[in-house]
Amino acid sequence: MEVAAFYIFAAITIVASLLVVGQRNPMYSVMLLITSFGGLAGLYILLDAPFTAVTQIIIYAGAIMVLFLFVVMLLNVPREEPLPAAAAQLIGPTGLKIGVVLSVLIAAQLVWALMQIGTRSFTAPPTDISDVGNIGRALFTDHAFAFEVTSVLILVAMVGAIVLARKEH
Amino acid sequence: MVLSGILFSIGTAGVFLRRNLIIVLLSIEIMLNAVNLMFVAVGRYRGVVDGQIITFFVMTVAAAEAAVGLAIVIALFRHRETLVPDAFTSLKW
Lengths: 169, 93
Known about the structure:
By secondary structure, chain A is an all-alpha fold. Chain A is built from 7 helices and no strands. Chain A has helices at residues 2-22, 26-46, 50-75, 85-90, 92-115, 132-141, 144-164.
């Protein structure tokens, strides 16, 4: 039952990601990426990480993708046009095919490298790794510095985004 | 773990092969998600909670980076009226 759920969520995630990079309309791409995040959230729940699943839906699918949607609609992003004629002779459809072959090679290499780690049989982990209290405790004690620095990072990103997107007068 | 590697390579292919800046940014997000999945899986394998904590920070950094990246895209679009990566060549010699 769990194996079936893993394959279903994995299939959803991979198909959605392939369609995000493979099809032309950017609005569909954003929606497909939201679907992919949903699949990933299911995988996180299967991996005993419900907090991560929920924060992914809230932060990624809820905030970042909405931001992307805003920008797509604001800029009226057109469908992707094919290569112009000058570059098309240089790269052409074979260029795209070579790119796809290269990325399949990267995928094969990563998969091979990850399989070398070996699959030791997995004892069930202690159930307290998914406890939100434990996550909070570790965040605020061991990783407190990183936590505070992250807040400064968000502030800097906010100021930077406002400055960058301002209209010049 | 294999799934994470596959997702990462899909994202990489998207970054290189697409001619629309927004989709390039989306592919970067795919890569970040793949890495997150790997972190959570390894964290569970070793029985520590650190995998999820790293994931939390990666998500936050990804949010900040998406915001700044989109602001840059908006500024670029105002300058050139196009979103094709090949059009921004003013840094080339």
